[in-house]
Amino acid sequence: MNWDISFISEDNFKKHVENTINKYGDKLTSFDLVRFNKNIVDPIKLIFDNIVYRNTWEETIKNEIFRQRDKSNNNDIGYFHQYIFKYIDKCTVPDNGTLGGWDVIYKNDNGITMPDGNVVHTIYVEMKNKHNTMNSSSAAKTYIKMQNQLLSDDDCACFLVEAIAKESQNIKWETTVDGKKVSHRFIRRVSMDKFYEIVTEDTNAFHKICEKLPKTIQEIVNTSKNISIPNDTVYKELLEAANNDEGAIAMSIYLLGFSSYNGFNSEN
Fold first, then answer.
1. Which residues share a beta bridge with 170?
2. Alpha-carbon span 145 to 159, nearest angstrom
3. Which pLDDT score is estimated for 29?
4. How does pLDDT run across 200-259, given as a tens digit for each residue?
5. Where are the domains of the chain?
6. Using CA atoms, how far apart are residues 233 and 68, in angstroms rounded to an integer?
7. Which of 10, 110, 150, 238 is packed most tightly, with the most Cβ within 10 A?
8. In whole angstroms, what is the distance from residue 169 CA to residue 164 CA?
9. Of residues 229, 220, 235, 238, the one with CA closest to residue 30
10. Measured between alpha carbons, how far is 15 from 93 in angstroms, rounded to an integer?
11. Burial of 38 (0-12, 13-18, 19+ CB in 10 A)
12. Do 20 and 213 contact (CB within 8 A), yes or no?
């Protein structure tokens, strides 16, 4: 693969992608029926999903396994978005709870020009995967944290950086604190592409990362001995419990959650 990115080396990029894949950990472990029902699935939901979406039972089970795996995957992708900056010049990714608990800190002795022309030398970053992941209480808490940082350092800006923003943007963050709408020119809401542009001085930096990502993931998955391919057996076990009758799987599903309930505990 021709490497034409100047702000991160190919070796460091591959290392970071592999570290992210390794974060998937036991989510790559195969699902059997015991693991599938570890937290007790909702049989009613599965029945609705199966019939309303007109899926086969095998498709329904695969979708539920995917949902269970996916619940914690956002943390792994958050790791990718945050920790890649430790390989980028002038960026620091503090250990959890240190340096004020910021996700990324970017310092540039030459100055960082804000959209209004003002210049600061440090940006403190709170990073989110998606624009809608914070409720009003969390947003207010984060905004107050940024206000306090500005009070203790008058040569900085604070960014809420969103990997999945509504659009490419670098705007004042307007939110509500204690019932009042608040905003500050140095407290900003910034899409991931705009943050990459600031720290790398490359307008298309994030696009370049996205271009390299699929082939890099594929290469690592194909060559790594530490990455297993799941062999899920849930559907097969449910079908066996239903005496290989696809139409009887619904009762096997019910028994996952309701085996001790009235009427169900007499089922064979």
1. 190
2. 11
3. 87
4. 999 999 999 999 999 999 999 999 887 878 899 999 999 999 999 988 999 999 999 999
5. 31-71+233-266, 88-221
6. 15
7. 238
8. 11
9. 229
10. 16
11. exposed
12. no
